[in-house]
Write a structure and sequence with these properties.
By secondary structure, the protein is α+β, with helices and mostly antiparallel strands. Helix content is 39%, strand content 23%. Keywords: DNA-binding, Transcription, Transcription regulation.
Amino acid sequence: MNWIHNIQSAIDYMEENLLEDIKLDKVAEQANSSLFHFQRTFALLTDCSVSEYIRRRRLSLAAEELSSSKQKVIDIALKYGYDTPESFSKAFRKQHGVAPSEAMRYRGKLKFYDRLIIQVILKGAEPVKYNIVEKESFKAVGIKKTYSLKGNENLVEIPKLWQEVNHNGTVSQLFELNNGGIKGVLGICDDLKVDEQLIDYWVAVESTMTESDLFQLIDIPASKWVVFEVSGPMPEAMQNTWKKIFSEWFPTSDYEHAGTPEMEVYPEDGSDKTNFYSEIWIPIKSKK
């Protein structure tokens, strides 16, 4: 359960530093994870982004203080990281539904978020189907976009990229170049720019091409992969499978993420089908 322990260590770090300027890369370090993998895992487990969790906890503690002390609103605002009473009031009202000045009279109506404790609940009623395979290094050809991890830009912009390539003919062009072992269009995530809080995201196909005027090439290293089957309407089926992987499979497996690029595989067109089949490929290594 090292994985669960690491996530909890990151949460404890956030809680111990709620009054400080928390750097998300430092939070991820507590979990022995890259920022991208930590942000995604945290969101899958909690249905809340890391930044949102910090914001909710700060405003919860701020509400407790306002409702039980005679401190000025400006002092509470500065204590919990807000530069002006106006920005604090706006965030406070969004969470609690009342202004900070009203918090004392409306304590029973305030929305408090407690400190998170990570627990694994093994459901097992609908187990994920997977295979473990080893594959030599290969090349993929496609388009690359770079996204920031700040403000969850990657989570917002990547779906927009897929809409674009599905409508402008890019996916059809890539299918024609797909002559490698993996049949389908790949969504490859490469977070090697961790120091800059950037990730490269590719829409590509495995191909033996060595150069292209239209597309870029990426080398995928030889890896041991765990390949999960995804079946059902998109994007719900893909999102649900990712959640099962990180909440049920990884915590009880003998493996951890290898830290190299991972990918989703879409073998055919027609993501509107109710029984659409796709796959998630995650590079793995044995736990220490």
